[in-house]
Amino acid sequence: MTANLSSPADAKPQLSTLRRFFGYFAPYRHEIPVALLMVLIGATSQAIGPLLIGWSIDNLILQGNLPGLLRMLAILASIYVVGFGAIRAQIRRMGGIVQRLLGQIRQDIFDKVQSLPVSFFDRSEAGDLMSRLLNDVNTVNQAFGLTIPQVLGQTFSLVGIIIAMLSINLQLGLLSNLVVPLMIFTTGVFSRWARSRFRLTRQTIGDLSAKLEEDIGSVREAQAFNRTQLNIEEFDSLNAANRRANVQAVAVTAAFLPSIDFLNTLATAGVMAYGGYLATTGAMTVGTVTAFLLYVQQFFRPIQILSQFYTQAQSALAGLDRIFLLLDEPVTLQDAPNAVEMPLIQGQVRFEQVEFGYSPHQRVLKGINLGAQPGQMIALVGPTGAGKSTIINLIMRFYDVSAGAVTVDGIDVRDVTQASLRRQIGIVLQDNLLFSGTVAENIAFGVPQAHQVDIEAAAQAANVHELITSLPQGYRTQLGERGTPLSQGQRQLVSIARAVLLNPRILVLDEATSSIDTRTEGLVQDAIARLLHNRTSFVIAHRLSTVTQADQVLVIQQGQIVEQGTHTELMALNRIYANLYSLQLGSV
Amino acid sequence: MQESQPQASNSLRQLQRVLSSLRIYPLLSLGALSSALLLVAAYAITPQLFRWAIDQGITQGNLDIVLYSAAGLVMAAIARGVFNFGQSFCAEALSQSVVYDLRNQIFSKIQTLSFSYHDQAQTSQLLTRVTSDIEQIRTFLSTNLIQVISGVVTLLTIAIILLVMNWQLALISLLVVPIAGWLMARFFRRNNQLFRQVQEQLSDLNAVLQENLLGVRVVKAFVRESVETERYTRLNADLVAANLKTLQAIRNTFPYIFLASNLVIVMVIGYGGIAVMQGRFSVGELVAFNAYLLLILQPILLIGFAAPAIAQAASSAERVYEVMDAAIEIKDRPHAMPFTTCGGRITFENVSFRYPGATSPALCNISFETKPNELIAILGMTGSGKSTITNLIPRFYDATSGAVRIDGRDVRDFTLASLRSHIGTVFQETTLFSGTLFSNLTYARPEATLEEVIAVAQAAQIHDFVTSLPEGYDTVVGERGVGLSGGQKQRIAIARTLLTDYSILILDDSTSAVDAQTAAQIQAALDDLMRRRTCTSFVVAQRISTVRTADRILLVDKGRLVAQGTHAQLMAQSPLYSIILESQMKAAPALS
């Protein structure tokens, strides 16, 4: 599934995508007829002009009928004014419908994102996914947002013109209209040709951007390793390839409009020749020929706009394909149909013969058994990638076990709702992710209706209250993209406060070892100690002090618990744990 | 990076610089320009052919003339087609060439700018300049520039032709130009703010989406889904409202322009019709006039749309040249000589250093001298200045006062290339590159053999891991070295550095992410290498466990060299050293 989301969707069955896109128009089906009527009126007012002008020339101007001419012009002017009003109304109605529709698509995307399980996000690259989604909605907006009314109008115009011409003179009309299918065919050929050229340009610009991003971000390494010249040369060849590909692509697109124009002129010339012949033999009037000439001139614009629309629509449809792929992604972790609310947790957590793997042929946990009594602190140690964070994933029910069961107070976590379970579990993870919003909002992340008093109390317990009040705007300081950046240590304190406010019965903690300065380190250790007090906690331990104070230490190696016990017991065993410990101690 | 106040005159001047680079491609420039001008001529001739066909041909009953003018139309169309193609192709090829040069120039500049520049610059800002700013300039060159030129020429040509044909009618018709111009100017003035608002709303909305994607665990753990959805819904509604306002601005502009041009046509038919009735004007002339009017509207629109595009391209040019004009702080002196051998005597003579823009100095009067084959450890807390010291040796920065010497020669007397190729540095943050493990390891020496690579991998204790992978050294590594743990990345970085021609080795806190056991193994292997191959080695660290075995430890605190000596000497003589030792025993990290 994800592979399709990352790769460009090429020429797939586009009809189904279109149909599904049209489905989004359903809520507006009462407004659409009026909007379409406006479009029709607007197009007709444009199409009728040449007809009336031609008629005026024959029957009024050449007859010297001045009052008649003035009357006709008044009619024409009013038709144009009516058309003007219709076009304004059409922009408002159709444009409004499309914008609200796009808002719905954006909403659907977000709702879907919220419902998908953690496993989906671990598989796809978040940044890539996001830029795709946003680009795609943007492309749809550009292709359809403002142009749908115009496209509809031009289509109606085209049809109107053809009808008008046929009704004036069948033969001449057929002759001139021969060119329309030719134009459409040419458009098809060119766009197929252009598409393959542009696929190449997308690739070259992608390669160029990737190289750019990598080299700009690694300037220090390049200078330290004297790699600058080589980087510049490699960049130049990608740059040149991109230039070549683009020039080749434009050779196609530059030839397109002139070809259409040429066909248009062939038609005009044909009309003039044959029409002129008819006029000289008296079978056709000057005015009629004039009208025909003006109409043939008007062919060009609709075809031009429609072909531009066609290309844009292609990218938009590809984007819609990806969006619909996301919306169709199955939600693999859901509350069971008869799930109940998790009652107030006492704090007993058990893993019973748990087996788990992130993919079918990969076993990260093999037959894990562990039990924590309420209030106990369980330290998890072991080499990287051994499954410690997986255990956390399973307690939080970010993933479900493949075999065995995870129980809290004897209740299988799959039998309760995710929300009721997680509301009682607090986490402090390695990355200390904060969100855009005020400091207070971040601390109250899990308890949005918390009072300022409680927020400050939680901050106090996390040793971060002084720090916050020393900021220029205190608790109202904005964090995130447009806000004040905090240091790693300070962010960790805020995330601890966030967990404190939740007052969870179970705590999950990943002790980060990023470079925090000694003073903040002290504050963090103290805050964590307070946080762990009286709660069942699972700690991925990185500090000696944590391990020595744990009620149980689990040594995890290659998906299995190889040693289990208190610090003292494990030291007495004098095997794996003792080895790790003395190595650490001896090297200080 | 400091954003300068946008000054219209400065950005236009930068745009002029871009335009002057068109001179490098005279053929393409002239090709585009002449095609544009000839295209205008081809367009201008068509209505005259109509007139000829109607007045001389149809009304006179002269079929020959009708057929001649039909043929003329076809030839004009062919000419139009050729010149249209010429104009589009030349303009695009020209823009691609100019931008190709710009990209190369700015890329080289970025690669050669010193560390101090990059400390203050943000990667994303630099990227924007090389990608979207340059693309903005390119679009301007390939479309707007030529559209403005041909638009102006078209308007002037048609205006002249109309005035010659019938000056009264011409004046009526040309009314449409100022009306349209005024409406468009008003539209862009208002739309500017609207457009910026829409962009802001969009980025606010995207920020929420991004946070929820990246922080999915936190959102789910704190059961925050509904609150986040509410936030998003509100912002989404704001965005829709902003877009609707844009629609309204469009609604109040363009339909009026089209109505104005339609009414002008009506007036022309009226006034012109009367003139025909009075014999002052022919039907052919009237039809031609009408055809010219249809040609006027598009250039007006194109010129109108070009105005904001010019402004955007100008500010993009300003941003691009800001980088290109940046001064390169660290470069070779005029008579720099190559660095060849190293005796091992590295001297810091009263070296002080302050980062550009910093209020306090990072290093204050540092003086020390190394002896040949010494392993020097530099110990200090975060922000003490320890990494700054080693950054001065390969001249990543230059001392603000004092001198850094190697065997008595100031490092600034050597060429950068020769100096750096003999100093191997392992940075604190490991950056790996997309490619295979092999290409990453041979980053500095692409021509290295597999045997050489295996040798350094073994020394860095990473060979066993690599051979455990199904594809071994050909395993593909992601952009940021995804799929590898912090410790594995660091070991690869160490191996990478070992493959260079180093005489001096600098390891900056390079085993911080590695577990104790592996760190000990790496240290043992490196100790050996360092004593054998280098003339001096430096290890920068926070943990005393890393520096115990060094020949000499330099203890740095707040930019000053506080003490130096062996571990035993420092334990006995330095109170600060003892304090650090004690606090580290309590909070030993990396047990796992």
Textual characterization of the structure:
The complex is a heterodimer of chains A (588) and B (592). Chain A has 588 residues and is α/β, with parallel strands linked by helices. Helix content of chain A is 65%, strand content 10%. Chain A contains 22 helices and 12 strands. The radius of gyration of chain A is 35 Å and the shape is elongated. With 592 residues, chain B is of the alpha/beta class. Helix content of chain B is 64%, strand content 10%. Chain B is built from 21 helices and 12 strands. A 6-stranded mixed beta sheet of chain B has the order 6-9-10-3-11-12, with helices on both faces. In chain B, α2 runs antiparallel to α11 and α15 packs across α17. At the A-B interface, α3, α4, α6, α9 and α10 of A face α2, α3, α5, α7 and α8 of B.
Give the helices and strands, then pairings.
The complex is a heterodimer of chains A (588) and B (592).
Chain A: H1 2-6, H2 14-23, H3 32-61, H4 66-115, H5 118-123, H6 126-145, H7 147-168, H8 170-177, H9 179-217, H10 219-224, H11 228-280, H12 286-328, E1 349-356, E2 365-372, E3 377-381, H13 388-395, E4 403-408, E5 411-412, H14 418-422, E6 425-428, E7 437-438, H15 439-443, H16 452-461, H17 465-470, E8 478-479, H18 488-502, E9 506-510, H19 518-532, E10 536-540, H20 544-549, E11 552-557, E12 560-565, H21 567-573, H22 576-586
Parallel strand pairs in A: 3-10, 3-11, 6-9, 9-10
Antiparallel strand pairs in A: 1-2, 1-4, 4-5, 7-8, 11-12
Helix pairs in contact in A: 2-12, 3-4, 3-7, 3-12, 4-6, 6-12, 7-8, 7-12, 8-11, 9-11, 9-12, 11-12, 16-18, 18-19, 21-22
Chain B: H1 8-20, H2 26-58, H3 63-112, H4 115-120, H5 123-165, H6 167-174, H7 176-214, H8 216-221, H9 225-251, H10 254-277, H11 283-324, E1 346-353, E2 363-369, E3 374-379, H12 386-392, E4 401-406, E5 409-410, H13 416-421, E6 423-426, E7 435-436, H14 437-441, H15 450-459, H16 463-468, E8 476-477, H17 486-498, E9 504-508, H18 516-533, E10 536-541, H19 544-547, E11 552-557, E12 560-565, H20 567-573, H21 575-586
Parallel strand pairs in B: 3-10, 3-11, 6-9, 9-10
Antiparallel strand pairs in B: 1-2, 1-4, 4-5, 7-8, 11-12
Helix pairs in contact in B: 1-11, 2-3, 2-5, 2-11, 3-5, 3-11, 5-6, 5-11, 7-9, 7-10, 7-11, 10-11, 15-17
